[in-house]
Design a protein that fits this description.
single chain; 60s Ribosomal Protein L30, Chain: A; 12% strand; 7 helices; 2 domains
């Protein structure tokens, strides 16, 4: 009886395909998960961006922008600017300017007050020489009658007012303020306190800004120019004849 020859077992060289197929399957699943996660994150980012956009519109900042939110390029050192209610049109300030010119005629003649048409409305500029002591935020007692006449006229209408403090470029350092930033901001907030406490203006319609020396209206190289730059501007937001209507956004402060 002859013995059957056993067939020699040859090792398979194709078994690596099983591991390779498993690896490809896992890799495919991994990329599917990454892709789906990226889609979810993009959707969430879009929702967050839209929510922030709406919030800024409600606060009156960048109300006309419909594109993606841009990173700020300037630093604000001021309270948010006043935004008009959605159902309220900017008032026509032409008549207010005439009345204010008559009310403050003596101060205008002495150069203590100037009226001008600004980008956002009527600008009532109160010069330091007429209303403040040097390096102080308190209103001079001698200027209180003029301030009272102005405030009572503003209290008649429901105006939105942005109050801006400005200085010259001479550095200040006294017991109260260590910089022009602080002095300009203190003067504008003191104006708001007086308007609210003494004259009953609606605080929701007021905002304060401190610009320091960085928004001059004249050259700081001369004494006369520096005197013009030391001021507090009351910007009554609205429109005037011959002036195109502007968007009421947050004023940037350097």
């Amino acid at each position: 009886m002859s013995r059957r020859k056993r067939r020699a077992h040859r090792p398979s060289h194709d078994r690596w395909l099983v591991s390779y197929a498993d690896f490809i399957t896992l890799l495919f699943a991994f990329f599917v998960v990454l892709y789906s996660t990226a889609q979810v994150d993009r959707k969430k980012v879009g929702q967050l961006s839209a929510a922030i956009q709406v919030a800024f519109q409600q606060l009156g900042a960048n109300p006309t922008s419909t594109g993606p939110i841009q990173a700020p390029v300037e630093i604000n050192q001021a309270a948010p600017a006043v935004a008009l209610p959605a159902d309220e049109e900017p008032p026509d300030l032409s008549s207010l300017r005439k009345e204010m010119g008559q009310t403050l005629a003596p101060e205008i003649a002495r150069g203590e007050v100037t009226l001008r048409t600004g980008r956002d409305g009527l600008v009532i500029s109160l010069k330091e020489a007429g209303f403040f002591n040097s390096g102080s935020a308190g209103v001079k007692a001698a200027s209180e009658p003029a301030f009272s006449r102005m405030a009572r006229l503003l209290a008649v209408g429901k105006y939105n007012i942005r109050i801006e403090g400005h200085t010259d470029n001479v550095r200040i350092h006294n017991a109260q303020y260590s910089s022009n930033w602080e002095l300009s901001t203190a003067r504008s907030t003191e104006m708001i306190r007086l308007l609210v406490v003494n004259y009953g203006l609606d605080p929701e319609r007021l905002s304060a800004s401190g610009y320091g020396e960085y928004h001059p209206v004249a050259s700081n190289r001369t004494a006369d120019g520096r005197a013009l730059n030391r001021r507090v501007d009351l910007v009554v937001l609205g429109k005037q004849e011959g002036v195109p209507k502007q968007g009421l956004g947050q004023e940037n402060v350097h």
